[in-house]
Amino acid sequence: MSKKVWIDAGHGGKDPGATANGLQEKDIVLKLSQGIKKQLETEYEGIEVLMSRSTDVFLELSERTAAANKAGADILVSIHCNAAGGSGGFETFRFTNAMPASAALQISLHREIMAALNPYRVTNRGQKSANLHMVRESKMPAVLTENLFVDVSNDAGLLKRQEVLDALIQGHVTGIANHLGLKKKEEAAVSKNERDINVVSSWAATAWKAMTEQGYVDGSRPGAPITREEIAVMLSRFINNQQK
Ligand SMILES: [Zn+2]
């Protein structure tokens, strides 16, 4: 069963959100949202990421939650940047009367995003609750992230660096994956990297050829596991050869 994650990039189109220092909130949150979708779907199995918007278009808040509820998303994360906030920093919001799963999602997201931001000395403004439409009207566990302040010069400087956007994306991805218990694709793909059992390893080629010529093995499937009866046959051939 695939998990459905709804990523809601705030604002868009005629609504730029917060603007300052040459930054527009709507552009930053779209980049973050696209990055989160791409990384989640590339790195994890059993996941489908749906978006309120994947381009620069305007949507009412009610359209966003209606679409997420209709899609039956398992969780919703609304992505924003902040403004008018003194010293800047990162904070997250759940609904004031949030279900326990929303609080759990908030803990996971907040922890992982702050960890990813660790090299950049971002202020941790904490895990908060508020009566916001996106977290109130979503039927599934929902959290809104406020990703730094466009009007605080230090934060704005960070938001202009791709490595900081990548850290924010990584934090969201790990927080979501941990909350949903997603499995990394590498774990499932290991079998694809396994050896071909019909091809002898180079380090064993000489011995394999010699043992085949002497009849201890029949030369087939050099990489296959061996059974107790096969060992018994090989040992008996060895003993017979010694007695000749
Ligand atoms: Zn916003």
UniProtKB/TrEMBL annotation:
**Residue ranges annotated for the SLH domain, each copy included:** 183-244
GO molecular function terms attached to this record: N-acetylmuramoyl-L-alanine amidase activity
Show the PROSITE patterns listed in the entry.
SLH
Q: Which InterPro entries match?
A: MurNAc-LAA_cat, N-acetylmuramoyl_amidase_3, SLH_dom
- UniProt xrefs under SMART domains: Ami_3 (SM00646)
Keywords, alphabetical = Hydrolase
Q: What is this protein called?
A: Cell wall hydrolase/autolysin
Organism from which the protein derives:
Paenibacillus algicola
